[in-house]
Specification:
Layout (H helix, E strand, L loop, with lengths): L6 H6 L4 H10 L25 E2 L7 E2 L10 H24 L2 H4 L7
Antiparallel strand pairs: 1-2
Organism: Miscanthus lutarioriparius
Protein name: NADH dehydrogenase [ubiquinone] 1 beta subcomplex subunit 8, mitochondrial
Keywords: Membrane, Transmembrane, Transmembrane helix
Length: about 110
């Protein structure tokens, strides 16, 4: 019953019957590809073409953004280790203070 359309639904979706409407709904609801037509290159691509995001705007941008070039790799490593260390300490504290594993199961209380 879930796959069938009513007569009104069939007329709204094109009038080709429930089978044609169901087929159209299965194929992206009849809207085509989500990104438009594929452009086939007719000449060789430039070197490192995959590193530039060009969506047709006048200013293509690099795929890897340099949001904070003033932060060095060792400072970034220190922040990463500090954050992971905090969550590791939080997990250890939760395991040490786990009251459910220390109190035996009691019936009816």
């Amino acid at each position: 019953m879930a796959g069938r359309l009513t007569a009104a639904g069939s007329r709204i979706l094109g009038g080709g019957g429930a089978r044609a409407a169901a087929s159209a709904l299965r194929h992206r609801a009849g809207m085509g590809l989500p990104v438009g037509r594929h452009i086939v290159p007719d000449k060789p691509l430039p070197v490192n073409d995959e590193l530039v995001w060009d969506n047709g705007t006048p200013f293509p941008e690099p795929c890897i953004d340099r949001l904070a070039p003033h932060i060095g790799k060792y400072e970034a490593l220190a922040w990463l280790c500090g954050g992971l260390g905090f969550f590791a300490a939080l997990g250890v504290a939760a395991a040490v203070n786990d009251k459910a594993s220390k109190i035996p199961y009691q019936f009816g209380y």
